[in-house]
Design goal:
Blueprint: E1 8-11, E2 18-22, H1 27-46, H2 49-65, H3 67-78, H4 82-102, E3 109-111, E4 118-125, E5 128-132, H5 138-151, E6 155-159, H6 165-176, E7 184-186, H7 191-198, E8 205-209, H8 212-225, E9 228-232, E10 238-241, H9 247-259, E11 271-275, H10 276-290, E12 293-294, E13 303-304, H11 311-326, E14 330-333, E15 348-351, H12 358-361, E16 368-374, H13 377-385, E17 392-396, H14 400-409, E18 414-417, E19 436-437, H15 444-448, E20 450-457
Helix pairs in contact: 2-4, 2-6, 3-4, 3-6, 4-5, 7-8, 9-10
C-alpha cells in the first residue's frame, strides 16, 4: 500500500526504464503549501482583475515557448505520442489566454430595489483551490482549472498525477514564476497526498479530474470541511451507429474515438451500439481501420498508438478483454498482450459484447472498441441510457429525428452528433451520475470558482432626519 511518504518511481511506459523518482508531500509539506496559499490570498484577491489576467497571459506565452519540451516530457512519463502531446500543450496555452481574456469580464448583477438604495450581486474568490489533475491530458486539464482559479482571484495548490510528476511540476513552476509568491504552489504525491489536500481545513475548493473512486473519497473529505467540490470522474461513453450511415465513415469515427491517446481520453468511446443493418460492413471496416493504429507509424494512413500509461493500466484493460472473450465475445483484431518492453496494447475490435460484460458496464480506458449489435435505433438508445455514468455520448445517424431524440434523452453532459470528437472553443458541460458534478471548463468555470455575495446599500439617515 502506498503511503504519503513512500518514494514514487516513474517509468517510461514505452521502455520500462526508470525516468525519475519523487518524494510525496506529507502532512507538513501540505500544511506549508496551503499556508502559503492562504497568506498570499488577501493581496491576490485585491489585485486588479486586469493585472491578474496580464500575469496569466504572460505565463501562457512562456508555455508556448517550451511546448516541445513539455510534450517530450509528457511522452516520456505517460507514453502519449509527441504530436498528440504537443497539441495538448498548445491547447493549454490557449486555455490560459482564454481565461486571461474572460477573467476581467466576469461580473455580477445589479438588482432593482428602492430608489435610494443600491442592490448588487457580486462574485468574489472563494479562497484556496486544490487542483488535482490526471495523467491522460495533464497540461491542458491543469491549465483550465488553474487558469480559471487564478483570474478570479483564488490561490492554488496543485497536485499533478503521480504518473507524470516532473511534467506537472515543470508546468506549475513555470506558471508560478510569473505570479507573486504563494499564489500557485505545487506538491508531489499520489492518493494519500491528494487526501491530505482534499480534507485540509484551509482549502475552500477541491477541483479533481480522475477516477470515480478518488472522486468519491474527495467528496467525502470535503463534506467534513465545507469545501466546494468540482469533479470529473471519467465515464463509460456510448456511441450509436444508426442504420443508413456510411459504415466505412462510421468505422473511422469509432476508431478515432476508441484509439486516440490509446483510448485514454476522458471522453473516449467505451461501448458501441451498431444497428444490425450495417453491422457486417461496419465491423469489417472497423477491423481494417484498427490495423492502421500502430506503435511507430511509417506507412501512408498509419496513425500513432502509444503505450498505455503503465503495465498496471494494461492489466486492467486486458482483464476486460479476456473476460469478454471468455463470455462469448469475438476479437476481430487485437486482444492479446504483445511481447517486449513497455505497456503497449494493440488496437482491438470486439463483437458479440453483451450488457452483462464488464467491458460494457465499466470504463476500460484503453484502445478497445467493444461492439454490441442491436436490432433498432430504439434498442441502441435504451441500452446507451442504461448506465450510471454521465460524461458524454456520440450518435452517428443520417436521421435528424433520431439525432434530436438522442441528444435530448441521453443523461450525459455532452452529446456529439456525427463526430466522435469536436466542439467550439469555450464549451462547457456538467457531468452527471458517477461521472461527477460541476462545470469543469468554459466561462461557466469562472462561476464555479467564485462565490456570489448579495450587497444592499442605502443612505444613512442624518441627525436632522431623526
Amino acid at each position: 500500500m502506498t503511503t504519503a511518504t513512500a518514494e514514487i518511481e516513474i517509468r517510461d511506459p514505452a521502455t520500462d526504464e526508470v525516468v525519475g523518482r519523487v518524494r510525496p508531500a506529507g502532512p507538513e509539506q501540505v500544511d506549508d503549501a496551503v499556508g502559503r496559499a492562504v497568506a498570499a490570498g488577501r493581496d491576490w484577491a485585491r489585485t486588479a482583475p486586469g493585472d491578474r489576467a496580464g500575469l496569466v497571459k504572460a505565463a501562457a506565452v512562456a508555455v508556448r515557448a517550451v511546448a516541445e519540451e513539455l510534450a517530450r516530457l509528457n511522452e516520456t512519463e505517460t507514453g502519449r505520442p509527441f504530436d498528440d502531446g504537443l497539441g495538448g500543450v498548445l491547447a493549454a496555452a490557449g486555455t490560459l489566454e482564454q481565461y486571461a481574456e474572460l477573467g476581467p469580464l466576469h461580473r455580477g448583477r445589479s438588482l432593482q430595489g428602492n430608489w435610494s438604495a443600491t442592490d448588487l450581486m457580486v462574485p468574489g474568490p472563494r479562497g484556496v483551490v486544490a487542483v488535482l489533475t490526471p495523467w491522460n491530458d495533464p497540461v491542458a486539464v491543469a491549465a483550465g482549472l488553474i487558469g480559471a482559479a487564478l483570474v478570479t482571484g483564488n490561490t492554488v495548490v496543485h497536485k499533478p498525477s503521480e504518473r507524470c510528476p516532473h511534467l506537472g511540476r515543470r508546468f506549475a513552476d513555470l506558471l508560478a514564476s510569473y505570479l507573486p509568491d504563494g499564489v500557485l504552489t505545487v506538491v508531489d504525491g499520489a492518493g494519500p497526498t491528494g487526501a491530505l489536500l482534499a480534507g485540509h481545513a484551509g482549502v475552500d475548493v477541491v477541483a479533481h479530474v480522475g477516477s470515480i473512486a478518488a472522486g468519491r473519497a474527495i467528496a467525502e473529505a470535503a463534506a467534513g470541511t465545507g469545501a466546494k467540490v468540482l469533479l470529473e470522474n471519467g465515464g463509460n461513453d456510448p456511441l450509436i451507429v444508426d442504420d443508413g450511415v456510411d459504415p466505412v465513415w462510421a468505422a473511422g469515427q469509432v476508431a478515432l474515438g476508441s484509439y486516440a491517446n490509446g483510448g485514454q481520453v476522458c471522453v473516449s468511446v467505451e461501448r458501441v451500439y451498431c444497428h444490425a443493418a450495417v453491422a457486417e460492413e461496419f465491423l469489417a471496416a472497423l477491423a481494417e481501420e484498427a490495423t492502421r493504429w500502430v506503435y511507430r507509424p511509417s506507412g501512408e494512413g498509419e496513425k500513432a498508438l502509444g503505450p498505455l500509461v503503465d503495465r498496471r493500466q494494461r492489466e486492467h484493460v486486458h482483464s476486460h478483454v479476456t473476460e469478454a472473450l471468455r463470455d462469448g465475445a469475438v476479437a476481430h483484431v487485437g486482444g492479446a498482450v504483445p511481447d517486449g518492453a513497455g505497456a503497449f496494447y494493440p488496437a482491438t475490435v470486439l463483437s458479440g459484447c453483451t450488457p452483462q460484460m464488464r467491458i460494457l458496464r465499466e470504463e476500460t480506458f484503453g484502445p478497445v472498441a467493444a461492439v454490441r449489435v442491436v436490432e433498432s435505433f430504439e434498442q441502441a438508445l435504451t441500452e446507451a441510457i442504461d448506465d450510471p455514468h454521465g460524461l458524454a455520448a456520440t450518435v452517428l445517424t443520417p436521421d435528424m429525428a433520431h439525432a434530436q431524440e438522442a441528444w435530448r434523452a441521453l443523461p450525459v453532459g455532452t452529446v456529439k452528433v456525427n463526430a466522435a470528437f469536436g466542439g467550439a472553443p469555450g464549451g462547457a458541460a456538467q457531468p452527471r451520475g458517477l461521472s461527477g458534478a460541476g462545470f469543469g471548463y468554459g466561462p461557466e468555470l469562472l462561476d464555479e470558482m467564485t462565490a456570489t455575495k448579495v450587497v444592499h446599500v442605502e443612505p444613512c439617515p442624518t441627525r436632522d432626519a431623526r
